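Exercise 7b. C-alpha cells:
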C-alpha cells in the first residue's frame, strides 16, 4: 500500500521549488497547445522552478521538458519501465525508471510542491484529479491549477459545477482548483494558495 510522504523539513511553509506538470502525451490538433507548453516551460525556467513530469519525449510533455532544458532549467522525469524504452526522454537532468504507474505517481507527488495541468486526455485528468482528491481528503495542502488553453477545460468546469449543484462536491473543494489562461498568472495564484480546512463529505455525518 503506497503511503503519502512529506518532505517539507527543508522548506519554508508553502515555498514552491518544484512544479509537476501533467499534460498530453500527444500534441493536440491545434498549434496553440504546443505553444502553451513552450510558454509554461519558459515560465518555469524563468522562475527557477524544477520541472517534475512523466519523463516522455512526446507531445506536450516533451515540449515543456525541452523548453525548460533549453532555458538551462532542471527537469526530473519519472517513467514506468513498461514503456520507458518507447518514449523516455534521453536528455533530462534526471530520469527515474520505476516499476509501476502507482510508484510513478507517488514519486511525482513526493518530489513536487505544486501541480499544473495543460490539455490532455485520460492520463492527464487521472493524474491531476488524483492529487486534487488527496487534497480534498486533507492529505496534503499543495496547490493545483489548470491552464485553460483556448477554453479546453470549459466542459470539465461544467462537470465540476454540476457536481457541486447536485451535492457531490463542496464549493470550498471546487475552489481548490486554480485556473488561469497563462502560466505566470497561475504560478502567482499557486504561490499564495491556502488549502481549505473543510471535511470532504457533503450531507454525511461522520464519526469523530
Ligand atoms: P494523456 O493525457 O492520456 O496523453 O496522458 C498524459 C499523462 O499520463 C502524462 O502526464 C503522463 O504522466 C502519463 N502518460 C500518458 N501517456 C504517456 C506516455 N506515452 N509517456 C509518458 N507518460 C505518459
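Sequence design result:
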Amino acid at each position: 500500500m503506497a503511503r503519502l510522504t512529506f518532505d517539507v523539513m527543508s522548506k519554508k511553509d508553502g515555498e514552491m521549488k518544484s512544479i509537476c506538470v501533467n499534460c498530453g502525451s500527444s500534441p493536440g490538433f491545434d498549434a496553440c497547445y504546443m505553444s502553451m507548453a513552450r510558454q509554461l516551460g519558459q515560465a518555469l525556467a524563468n522562475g527557477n522552478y524544477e520541472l517534475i513530469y512523466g519523463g516522455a519525449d512526446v507531445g506536450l510533455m516533451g515540449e515543456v521538458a525541452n523548453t525548460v532544458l533549453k532555458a538551462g532549467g532542471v527537469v526530473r522525469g519519472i517513467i514506468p519501465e513498461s514503456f520507458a524504452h518507447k518514449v523516455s526522454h534521453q536528455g533530462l537532468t534526471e530520469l527515474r525508471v520505476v516499476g509501476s504507474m502507482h510508484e510513478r505517481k507517488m514519486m511525482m507527488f513526493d518530489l513536487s510542491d505544486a501541480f499544473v495541468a495543460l490539455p490532455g486526455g485520460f492520463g492527464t485528468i487521472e493524474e491531476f484529479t488524483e492529487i486534487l482528491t488527496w487534497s480534498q481528503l486533507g492529505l496534503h495542502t499543495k496547490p493545483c491549477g489548470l491552464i485553460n488553453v483556448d477554453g479546453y477545460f470549459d466542459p470539465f468546469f461544467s462537470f465540476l459545477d454540476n457536481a457541486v449543484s447536485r451535492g457531490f462536491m463542496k464549493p470550498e473543494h471546487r475552489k481548490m482548483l486554480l485556473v488561469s489562461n497563462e502560466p505566470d498568472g497561475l504560478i502567482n495564484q499557486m504561490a499564495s494558495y491556502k488549502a481549505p480546512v473543510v471535511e470532504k463529505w457533503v450531507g454525511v455525518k461522520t464519526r469523530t
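Instructor comment: The chain has a mean pLDDT of 93. Residues 18-191 form a domain with the Rossmann fold fold (CATH 3.40.50.450).
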